[in-house]
Amino acid sequence: METIKTDLLIIGAGSGGLSVAAGAVQMGASVVLVERGEMGGDCLNYGCVPSKALIAAAAQAYAPEVSGAFGVDLEAPRVDWPRVRAHVQEIIARIAPVDSQERFEGLGVRVIREQARFVSAREVEAGRHRITARRIVLATGSAPAVPPVPGLADVPYLTNETLWGLDTLPAQLLILGGGPIGMEMAQAFRRFGSQVTVVEGARALGREDPEMAAIVLDHLRSEGVTILEGETVTAASQKGSAIDLQLESGKTLTGSHLLIAAGRRPNTAGLGLEVAGIDSTKTGIKVDAGLRTTNRRVYAIGDAAGGLQFTHLAGYHAGIVIRSALFGLPAKVATHHIPRATYTRPELAHVGLTEVEARQRYGEKLEVLREALQHNDRAIAERETAGLAKVMVHKGRPVGATIVGAQAGDLISTWALALSAKVKISQIAGMVAPYPTLGELNKRVAGSYFTPRLFENRTVKAVTRTVQRLLP
């Protein structure tokens, strides 16, 4: 067995682990990276990248439905599923070199493609290697959670990890789970021509502002997606090539394929955490505000650390760990400025407090600003007027923002910056956005903060009249 000593050992080559590895090795630390599966992790291979490539293809299939309004008539689409799959794989392949073993070895990282497990508080075995490290980072990500539905184990179901291997386009797709993944895939496959039914035990997009989520759900329903909310699946079975789901309400749903999109669980099995004195729960590894585990030499980041499950959050965690593990500087995680987005059409994006959360915290001192996309000239020109921006303001500073509409995931970045840098609403209102762009939506909603203060204020009007009389 080869013995290796290093400054930093990273277990997991997903977004967070790769960010730590790249940053640390380029700053002069010796780094070993252990990955049992694919370089790039879930995001590159099964999550963010393939799903967005599929959504983009689905948008092309949907184009004939909306092109007539522009005076352009397109023929009905013919979906060639093998070519759609090839498109998805091509996008993965174009991005993969950035996350590849070759690139990281070129940077100076020792990459070991094996399963890792702790053998002591500071030692990890990976294949024929025993690695001792000053600091260890667990960036093992998460995997699809499968609910304990009777009979489900005997049914051929799909997850986000196996969806991309489909040989044929589903005729009738059943989706268990109405969160972001479930709703994104529901719309995409409906646009390809599949009949799609989503079953959600609570409220679809339940984490989001109900008013804003309703805009998205209504649009999906208008495209033909069936969304059943407050329905519990009590049993699953297979009859020939058909899959049946029994609901608590007595209904039976039948489909050709079943996609499980009911949340995720952290990848911690087989790591030997107990040997290293690292505590964990069902939601992830226990960490403090600085992402340290109960073993002070070991950090956990990204999905493995529980909490929010976003690729960009894992990248943010990487910066916290580099500051602490490499330089011994204090660093704590904050989440108030971390945005999230659901890439349906229209998109739904949020950062900070929701309206309900903000009202609970600030009461009558909270102001809620609203601006509809139907007043944005670019949205009008492109016939993308479904949507709304909602910004929560306390004492002249934004504390949360939700946007539904075209490019909401891009538009929310302005408010993520505002919360991160503690920018005043007046500074957003004073921004000059190019015309005509969707970005004007942010300026306009910020400007509405001053509408009652300036245009509905008697004192301001009196001062204006006085100044006008005095001016030569």
Name the descriptors.
472 residues; alpha/beta; FAD/NAD(P)-binding domain; Enolase-like, domain 1; 3 domains; 5-stranded antiparallel β-sheet; 23 strands; 34% helix; 24% strand; globular
Describe this structure in words.
The protein is α/β, with parallel strands linked by helices and 472 residues long. The chain folds into 3 domains: 2-39 and 100-144 and 265-327, FAD/NAD(P)-binding domain; 152-263, FAD/NAD(P)-binding domain; 340-454, FAD/NAD-linked reductase, C-terminal dimerisation domain (Enolase-like, domain 1). The protein contains 15 helices and 23 strands. The strands form 6 sheets. Strands 1, 2, 3, 4, 5, 6 and 18 form a 7-stranded mixed beta sheet that branches. Helix 1 runs parallel beside helix 8 and helix 3 (48-67) packs across helix 6 (180-192). The protein is globular, with a radius of gyration of 25 Å. The mean pLDDT is 95.
